[in-house]
Amino acid sequence: MTPETAVEALSAIVSAAYVVGPDGDQEPYVVDWRGRYHGTALAVVKPATTAEVSAVVRWCAANGVAITPQGGNTGMCGAATPLGPRPQIVLRLDRLNKVRWTSRLGDAIAVDAGCVLADVQAAAESVDRLFPMSLGAEGSCQIGGNLSTNAGGTAVLRYGTMRELTLGLEVVLPDGDVLSSMTSLRKDSTGYDLKQLFIGAEGTLGIITGAVLKLFPRPRGRAVAMAKLDAIEDALSLLALARASLGERLGSFEIMSRGQIEVIAENVSHLAIPFALDSAFYLLIELVDTLEGQDLAGLLEGLLGEAFERGLVTDALVASSETQAEALWKIRHSVSEGSKRAGYVISHDSAVPLDAQAEFVTRVTARIAETRPDARIALHGHIGDGNIHVLAIIPGVAPDQADAMKDVAAAINSIVDEETAALNGSISAEHGIGVANRERLARVADPLELAWMRKVKALFDPQQLMNPGKVLTPDS
């Protein structure tokens, strides 16, 4: 199969204007967001409908051409980069970007997989509802990618991951057939729930083209604060106190280490840090309520006052306006941008039980510091749901120096994986496996579970055309 043949055939399906051959500018589609993985493609194809996706997939199946599905290309693990020796295309979903319908009464919205997350949030708001998924890349990431990695974000504590936010899916299977279950039903016990196989599968079983997602009543008020703490144990004690006194009003509970905020302050020039960096940890707390007239700021001040009396916090700043609240959130959402500019980032997406988080952080940071004294260790994440991102940043090393950092990354990954497994955790809470973590998955996962994953893959994709080389290693 030559690129010229592929471009000609695919142009007949979607028109030449939406096919980028090797002679065109493919770089935005064959290099991952971090600049770590560089691939090649016979063509980049941009279908506009599910029918066009189906036709492209049928052509690929007939000609033995592999497919790398791609949304906003904002992933952290190389899952959307066309890698390996097989001839393949990038199937880009930008043009599948329609909101199909919304139901205010049914608290549901049906969207194409190429819809940008922020646009789905706006569509929900237009009918006075909330789609709660929120993360730093929400202005460019797409719903299909969010589903394919089972994204989490900053509101999991209250609303859950994408798996919990999904009612129905439309998927183009590896032979081009369309499996459509675009239902908004909250109760349905008619056999296997097949959609769950595609959520978190990273495009290895099929291509998600549409989804029905849950909506919620839109909050009528919120209060946001940043609190300083001396130890992660104090953050967990404060979490228990907040849950007991505030219940479901607790919307987000995010933690950052001082090292993480220092990295942001040094590398994100337009961002102002409105407090001194003199504590070990910083908590971003948000309360929300769907009822009008609730004194959330007063409740938050009361919580922090009690926490101060108990010695759990050393200081706190409660946002006095929406502008100030957004400024505090901007710090949290700048962790990826700041870290990327600080050096070569060896990042982790571990989740451990809440009771084990303090032990996990203590053991991992001590072992990394001993193994690589020059590494800047930064931590951030969703401490309320057990997901802590541990970053080891090697200063002065460019993001594309993966080969030079291979041994260093392997040593640090082993530390994090060993401690995660010892505490009955997961090495990937929300970022997925892709290519970056597939050897790690092979090392820590239950062999029986891996064997059944392979059986599922073989059943759905006997030609092994869907996102080859991702999630499962060739010999795992």
TrEMBL record:
GO terms for molecular function: catalytic activity; FAD binding. Residues 37-218 form the FAD-binding PCMH-type domain. InterPro entries: FAD-bd_oxidored_4_C, FAD-bd_PCMH, FAD-bd_PCMH-like_sf, FAD-bd_PCMH_sub1, FAD-bd_PCMH_sub2, FAD-linked_Oxase-like_C, FAD-oxidored/transferase_4, Oxid_FAD_bind_N. SUPFAM superfamilies: FAD-binding/transporter-associated domain-like, FAD-linked oxidases, C-terminal domain. PROSITE patterns: FAD_PCMH. Pfam families: FAD-oxidase_C, FAD_binding_4. Keywords: FAD, Flavoprotein. Its cofactor is FAD. One of its GO terms (biological process) is respiratory electron transport chain. It comes from the Bacteria. Belongs to the FAD-binding oxidoreductase/transferase type 4 family. This is FAD-dependent oxidoreductase. It comes from Methylopila capsulata. The lineage of its organism: Bacteria, Pseudomonadati, Pseudomonadota, Alphaproteobacteria, Hyphomicrobiales.
